[in-house]
TrEMBL record:
Listed PANTHER family: GNT FAMILY GLUCONATE TRANSPORTER, HIGH-AFFINITY GLUCONATE TRANSPORTER
Entry's localization field: Cell membrane
Protein name: Gluconate transporter
Membrane spanning residue stretches: 30-50, 57-76, 96-129, 136-154, 174-197, 218-242, 254-277, 298-316, 336-365, 412-433
Gene Ontology cellular-component terms listed: plasma membrane
Family membership: Belongs to the GntP permease family.
Species assigned in the record: Mucilaginibacter paludis DSM 18603
Topology with respect to the bilayer: Multi-pass membrane protein
Length: 443
């Protein structure tokens, strides 16, 4: 019964947004309350679940998204994004622009969380698209596909890192396997798939591109890249230091503090305010005005992201996710395929890739222990399943839709289909590696 209610609520949400044209934030709130009542949650507990879902989701994202939006706006209005776009244009040319974007997303996506990478790189996507006079989706999808793949497949991102610990996998081996699986997924779901979307037009309401400036007034390429990618350098550098000098408690604590995405973004804003603002002759009041405009741009996006977290919390607290996963335990499938399937179904229902992956891992591990499976590949099987078919209950779906100014149909045909390709290609890669390595012991 609970599974039927869950499916009905997902359908209701889609219909309210796509057919009824109800404000997305209100639709999430309404469906969340209805789901809680139908699933038997005590009335007195519903407000608490709503607050917890909203708070937990925004609590981990709001500072990063806001600071990232501020940096993105400054990168755009200072001319740094225009400078980077110009260099990309001159270096790779029109023909290979999507491959250049994929490569950028791949490199940036190794140390950087998806949401940070998204808000950091979105102004570059806008500038490259406008400079080449190409659709935003065609230019942006390859880069975002790379970011998504690295976030779902490769440690030290939160979900893969937690899965490595849960499956007792080897971190370095999992990273290596993850890169092997990631490359074909990025190529097919990125530049190749984007080629089919070259005619997809969008109408972005958010301006991430400053006025075109004469080349003489643009900041230098080193300053532009350094300021734009400073969070990558900070987080990546601190991660490397922690790996090398992790035995030193003081070094580990300091690098862990500085390398936290929130702290890294705070430091970046402080430095970029000077390098891209004050140093280029802008007044501090002008820079603060740019920051204020950026926050106004993303207000509704933050509400939508938070409301998606509410529905996820209702499903988790009522135990529907565990009931759904338990139902799938009866399927007689190979461990790697079963892990992917359970995670993919949970992802469809819950939206959160991290929650889907960790929930599936707790269910799959006891089942596969006596069968024998490569723990490193189990991490990747769950990771690829956690990216399956992102839709309206996933915060990344709304980031992509709202920033790029797409309709629901366009978002399903671009973002959702891209994520599905990534997930399926990842599964195929995992199964091939499983046949090659034939590791039959766990732990």
């Amino acid at each position: 019964m609970a599974i039927s209610i869950l499916c009905a609520c997902i359908v209701m949400l889609v219909l309210l947004i796509a057919w009824g044209k109800v404000n997305t934030f209100l639709a999430f709130l309404l469906v969340s309350v209805v789901a809680a009542l139908l699933l038997g949650m005590p009335v007195s507990s519903i407000p608490q679940a709503i607050n917890k879902g909203l708070g937990d989701t925004l609590g981990s994202l709001v500072i990063i998204i806001v600071l990232g939006a501020m940096l993105g706006k400054l990168v755009a209005y200072s001319g740094a994004a225009q400078k980077i776009a110009t260099v990309l244009k001159n270096t790779f040319g029109y023909k290979y622009v999507t491959w250049a974007m994929s490569l950028t997303g791949f490199i940036v996506g190794i140390p950087l969380f998806y949401n940070v990478g998204f808000v950091l790189l979105i102004p570059i996507i806008f500038s490259v698209a406008y400079n080449y006079k190409l659709p935003l989706v065609y230019v942006g999808l390859p880069m975002l596909a790379s970011l998504s793949v690295m976030h779902g497949f490769v440690p030290p991102h939160p979900s893969p890192m937690a899965l490595v610990m849960q499956f007792h996998a080897d971190l370095a081996t999992t990273f290596g396997y993850g890169v092997i699986v990631a490359i074909p997924a990025i190529i097919i779901a990125g530049p190749i798939f984007a080629g089919t979307l070259k005619k997809m037009q969008s109408n972005p309401a958010i301006s991430m591109r400053g006025d075109q400036m004469p080349d003489a007034q643009l900041p230098g390429i080193i300053t532009s890249i350094f300021s734009s990618l400073l969070p990558v350098l900070i987080i990546g550098g601190c991660t490397l230091i922690t790996r090398v000098y992790g035995y030193n408690a003081a070094v580990k604590n300091i690098s862990g503090f500085i390398g936290d995405p929130t702290i890294a973004m705070v430091l970046t804003i402080c430095i970029a305010t000077y390098t891209l603002g004050i140093r280029t002759g802008k007044r501090l009041t002008t820079i603060m005005s740019i920051y204020g405009e950026s926050v106004k741009d993303i207000a509704m996006i933050l509400l939508i992201i938070g409301s998606a977290g509410i529905l996820k919390e209702i499903f988790v607290e009522t135990g529907v996710s565990n009931e759904l996963a338990a139902l799938l335990q009866g399927f007689n499938l190979p461990p790697l395929l079963l892990a992917w399937l359970i995670t993919a179904v949970l992802r469809l229902c819950l939206g959160s890739a991290t929650i889907a992956g960790l929930t599936a891992a707790g269910i799959v591990y006891p089942l596969i222990a006596h069968h024998g499976a490569n723990p490193n590949l189990m991490v990747l099987a769950v990771g690829s399943g956690s990216l399956f078919c992102s839709h309206v209950n996933d915060t990344s779906f709304w980031l992509f839709k709202e920033y790029l100014g797409l309709s629901m149909k366009q978002t399903f045909l671009s973002w959702s289909l891209m994520e599905t390709l990534v997930s399926v290609i990842g599964l195929i890669g995992v199964l091939i590696l499983g046949e090659i390595f034939k590791v039959t012991t766990i732990g």
